[in-house]
Design brief:
Peroxisomal Thiolase, Chain A, domain 1, globular, 37% helix, 362 residues, 11 strands, alpha/beta
């Protein structure tokens, strides 16, 4: 079971030669970047003042597996000369920069399931520190393949629920693993004065970024949520905000026993018990599955839209309360809410935590 995209057509964004020479995760990345650029109304900007920070968790694994089969079946002389540029993790960021002619900083972030938040945070820093006026940031993943599904299943990380419609159930007592998924999301980050000068539509401000590491276990989160809480605290501090100001938390919420309990503990530690029990917390992975390196970007977009539209997304399939998950998870239905400040959590294997603070601009 996986959140697959079996019928994706990259031809609106790539010509046939590019399609053959690039991995599916690059196809998703270029499509999402083009759509984001269109939504941003294609601003004119000097090439050196624009950059790309784009994430992936695994990169071009489909290419790697396909070319390994070629090696075994047809010999080394038949391996594609485009294998390396297709599978490398920074292929997406490189292609996006070439597509738009951006000659400013170009960076690929790789940190298991949290690199999109690292990408958005680092892009924000490039702009805030004066290197750039605009940056495309996001993430892409295309890893719903038999080998990767088998590998995650062997780790007992995936759900064993046989029903795809209800398998992803973050924070529910019946949760038993995540649903591997794929896709991409891009955000156009722009200096506020640059955006206002051209009359851009502004969804919200990327106000803060916090990063930490559990230094606990290569796959399991710290059950106390200490590292995750630290990243949340630093994101708020970077934004100049107090815990009481948080209006919504988009949780990492993978639907695993360990993550959801540890994240609940982290939210309480970072915000305090009173605020934590008051603030709506939801996992959009209940609807999208877990897109690994693309997850944080999708969830950042959800935060931006929650602020812009005054609606927080739900955690669907939340039917039975869990003793170790006792917050307001916005069960099953979206909710109207005045969202001024949202936190977006992303955590990953190896211990990395990355948290973003999104804020409404007056």
């Amino acid at each position: 079971m996986a959140g697959d995209i079996p019928d994706f057509d990259p031809s609106p964004w790539l010509d046939p030669k590019e399609i053959r020479r690039t991995d599916r995760f690059v196809h998703y990345a270029l499509a999402s970047a083009a759509l984001a650029w269109e939504d941003a109304r294609s601003p004119e900007i000097p090439s050196e003042r624009a950059g790309v920070v784009f994430a992936t968790g695994i990169g071009g694994i489909q290419t790697l597996l396909a070319q390994h089969s070629v090696l075994l079946e047809r010999g080394p002389g038949r391996v594609s000369p485009f294998m390396v540029p297709a599978l490398m993790a920074n292929a997406a960021s490189g292609h996006i920069a070439m597509r738009f002619g951006f000659t400013g900083p170009n960076l690929c972030t790789v940190s298991a399931c949290s690199p999109s938040n690292h990408a958005i945070g680092e892009a924000m820093r490039y702009i805030r520190d004066g290197y750039l006026d605009l940056c495309i940031a996001g993430g892409s993943e295309a890893a719903t393949l038999p080998l990767t599904v088998a590998a995650f299943a062997q780790m007992t990380a995936l759900t064993r629920n046989p029903d795809p419609e209800t398998a992803s159930r973050p924070f529910d007592a019946g949760r038993d693993g995540f649903v591997l998924s794929e896709g991409a999301c891009s955000l156009v980050l722009e200096a506020e004065e640059h955006a206002r000068a051209r009359g851009a539509r502004i969804y919200c401000e990327v106000a803060g970024y916090g990063a930490s590491d559990d230094a606990f276990h290569i796959t399991a989160p710290d059950p106390k949520g200490s590292g995750a809480a630290l990243a949340m605290t630093w994101a708020l501090r970077d934004a100049g905000e107090e815990p009481a100001g948080v209006s919504y938390v988009n949780a990492h919420g993978t639907s695993t026993q360990l993550n959801d309990a540890a994240e609940t503990a982290a939210i309480k530690a970072a915000l305090g018990e009173e605020v934590a029990h008051r603030v709506p917390v939801s996992s959009t992975k209940s609807m999208t599955g877990h897109m690994l390196g693309a997850a944080g970007a999708v969830e950042g977009a959800a935060c931006a839209l929650a602020i812009a539209n005054g609606v927080v997304p739900p955690t669907i399939h939340h039917e039975r309360p869990s003793p170790d998950c006792d917050l307001d998870y916005v069960p099953n239905e979206a909710r109207a809410a005045d969202v001024r400040l949202a936190l977006s959590n992303s955590f990953g294997f190896g211990g990395p935590n990355a948290v973003l603070a999104f804020r409404r601009l007056s």
